[in-house]
Write a structure and sequence with these properties.
By secondary structure, the chain is an alpha/beta fold. The chain has a domain of 162 residues: Alanine racemase (TIM Barrel). It is 38% helix and 17% strand. The chain is built from nine helices and eight strands. Strand 3, helix 4 and strand 4 form a beta-alpha-beta unit. The longest helix is centred in the first third of the chain and has 18 residues. The two termini are 20 Å apart. The relative contact order is 0.15.
Length: 233
């Protein structure tokens, strides 16, 4: 079986190839290793290999891993990429007070208010992305594309939040290239009110090349690097 380092190198090589094919500099793309269901020891091993960004889907697991490794891994940036609930806002804020944290899943005004209200005196500003729903199912997580600019304006009124850009997952029933093209259009709209919100978090193991082609700045890649999830995960 390939080692963790070999899998990481293979993915990074493929990302670099996709970037060059798109006429982009691979250095402008951040690869986030999704470590859900894996133990803190894997995060430590990734850090030894030079990984500077890891992602978690569940707040409880994010908190547990940050509690386990604390600030012992200098330069490591954490990304919360799962659905964010308003009742988890304080826990996410607590995590952000310990380590650098970006929340990728802000999708409604109530969550904006909850994250902002949970800030205590001296707490750091938290970077956030707007999660965009690229499906026709209103029950899926994410703001509708035509509501993204209004939500961006609401984030801009929250003094403890910094809007970095947009995030989305490609629908299963649509070619990822067309879905990510629509996300790029949403990103362009958001930047009319927040010019610095240039991040586009899109692309996973099976579709990162298509995401890179339309300007993705952050990729979320899990098992292709980490290997199979532990039993029970």
């Amino acid at each position: 079986m390939d080692t963790l380092g070999e899998r990481l190198a293979a993915v990074d090589a493929a990302v670099a190839d996709a970037a060059r094919d798109a006429g982009r500099d691979p250095a402008e793309i951040t690869r986030i290793v999704v470590t859900k269901f894996h133990p803190p020891e894997l995060v430590r091993a990734l850090h030894v290999l030079g990984v500077a960004a890891v992602g978690e889907n569940r707040q409880q697991e994010l908190t547990a891993k940050i509690d386990a490794v604390g600030t012992e891994l200098p330069g490591l940036h954490w990304h919360f990429i799962g659905q964010a609930q308003t009742n988890k806002a304080r826990a996410l804020r607590q995590a952000a007070s310990i380590v650098p944290l970006t929340v990728h899943s802000v999708d409604r005004a109530r969550l904006v208010r909850s994250l902002d209200a949970a800030a205590g005196p001296g707490d750091p500003i938290v970077d956030v992305l707007l999660q965009v729903n690229l499906t026709d199912d209103p029950g899926r997580g994410g703001v509708a594309p035509d509501g993204a600019v209004e939500l961006a304006e609401q984030v801009l009124t929250a003094p403890s939040l910094r809007l970095r850009g947009v995030m989305a997952v490609a629908p299963l029933d649509e070619p990822p290239a067309s879905a990510f093209s629509r996300l790029r259009t949403v990103s362009d709209g958001v930047r009319t009110v927040a010019p610095d919100a240039v991040w586009i978090s899109a692309g996973m193991t099976g579709d990162f090349a298509e995401a890179i082609a339309v300007g993705a700045t952050h990729l979320r890649i899990g098992t292709a690097i980490t290997g199979p999830r532990p039993a029970g995960g």
